[in-house]
């Protein structure tokens, strides 16, 4: 495969404008690009001397039509180590599933979102940990908009949900912090959906990777002729969300001048589009998310203290998956059920060996990575149950390390201590109650009914066992 400093992307596309845009994004990510206009030329290029440097093939399915899977198989036959990415105008899950079974690694829906393409290219860099963070069909899973539908019994996680539920009933700005993949966007949308502004206008703006002028216009808007290329007036997201909610994802990547301008808008409640003579009053609530703790960026002078003060009226921290590993069995069951509902996918269970492997990994890509790894395994596994062999990348990463007995043994409860003796009944009972709370998504009446006890007994046990359901 091509070395890190000579990564070459073979682009199969006959649309010049799209090809230029993709090449520009690829160049920013450190890739060289070779472009061809049809599949025959692509296969010829792969067999050439220059083709030895090709690390990834990105092709538009419009050129392959109903022969998409045949083309993928030919590419993989010619260059088994080559990564294949699809570009499609349709997010049809069945096509994506069939393409992945033929050997494709990921797919992108047109028009290409720069960040999405950048992530896909980063995922082909040959770094095994990143390779598992591809996003094959994660967009196809129904978004969770209710707090009681979010899976997890971990104390930090339940505390974050409880804080979010309280914030949803208020009117102040909200800041959600946490590593990439921990569910920040999901939480932002749940807060908006549960708020008194749920019926009012809202918009999600992803700040990361946006060119400065584009981001400025997206947020504040501009007047016709405000700058070169401003052929029409554009309403900004702040104006669009008047009386509603603006969701800002990647707020920590905002350029400093835009931070200062946004702080002024929140302070005065007046927004003035670029090139406009006057501003106008707005009433907008901002729910912002960032991968890095803003407080440290403020201390380092990288983030506006005034904007941080405005956004952090309520600050919520989403814990990484490695700190809530006990939630892995519940999350796994939830994702497998959802994946089974996708067209072209079968319903899968997971065997103890597979669950042990999942629990042994530290998940740098967090919950999103777990979801995508499970999806990939379901695409390729023909048996009903996923086993350790269904996750070759994780096996490669973990090697022969002793994974011990699964904390769940397929049930979510560990029966034995490290010395081989049975765990105390109180500890097992606490695990079973936590499992039930996660399985029934915090619906305590259902938890009590399924456990065969009354609600008052359940709450007494929660108190005695020191379990914080945070519901």
Automatic annotation (TrEMBL):
Residues 150-379 form the Sigma-54 factor interaction domain. The lineage of its organism: Bacteria, Pseudomonadati, Pseudomonadota, Alphaproteobacteria, Sphingomonadales. The modification 4-aspartylphosphate is found at residue 60. This is DNA-binding transcriptional regulator NtrC. Pfam families: AAA_lid_14, HTH_8, Response_reg, Sigma54_activat. The keyword Coiled coil does not apply. It is found in: Cytoplasm. CDD domains: AAA (cd00009), REC (cd00156). Member of the two-component regulatory system NtrB/NtrC, which controls expression of the nitrogen-regulated (ntr) genes in response to nitrogen limitation. Phosphorylated NtrC binds directly to DNA and stimulates the formation of open promoter-sigma54-RNA polymerase complexes.
